[in-house]
Amino acid sequence: MYMRSFIEGTQIDLRPLTMDDVKEGYVNWFNDSAVCAFNRHHAFPYTEALARQYVEGLQTGNQNLVLAIIDKASGRHIGNVSLQAIDWMSRNAEFAIILGEREWWGKGIGAEASKMMVEHGFKVLNLHRIYCFTPTANVPMRKIAERLGFEEEGIQKEALYKDGMFHDVVAYGLINKQ
């Protein structure tokens, strides 16, 4: 099914995640230890049924905006970017991104998708603050956050249990000053 872009970028477009995106490749992202090295996914096997349940929930609620990252050249769905846990009263949301197709890593896709989503959050959704959390070892995500102007707000000691160990997590926040 063709779906028009929600937000158009240079290398990528963003559009709502739909049931048509729930395919074997998509499900495999969440079972890939490299793709999920720095998030809470991959702790348990992820199935198509779980993916469908997740996407269905997105269609009925208003506290999560999850957009598919589409490579313009190929038309492939290569990742997701989101504003989640949106608190409409306080105008805050948590930013997250997953780039599931490894061949697109290191090409600026994550940075472009992140910038597009943060701008959308501030300019269209009228958010006041966007925040994110990432393990201290996740250098690519930390670079993206810092490049976008996020400020380090603190370190949560041993806040993430992954692969049999506890990991420190850095909290970032960005205030809309416009």
From TrEMBL:
Residues 12-178 form the N-acetyltransferase domain. SUPFAM superfamilies: Acyl-CoA N-acyltransferases (Nat) (SSF55729). Gene3D superfamilies: 3.40.630.30. PROSITE patterns: GNAT. One of its GO terms (molecular function) is acyltransferase activity, transferring groups other than amino-acyl groups. Keywords: Transferase. It holds the Pfam family Acetyltransf_3. InterPro entries: Acyl_CoA_acyltransferase (IPR016181), GNAT_dom (IPR000182). PANTHER family: GNAT-FAMILY ACETYLTRANSFERASE, SPERMIDINE N(1)-ACETYLTRANSFERASE. This is GNAT family N-acetyltransferase. It comes from Candidatus Adlerbacteria bacterium RIFCSPLOWO2_01_FULL_54_21b.
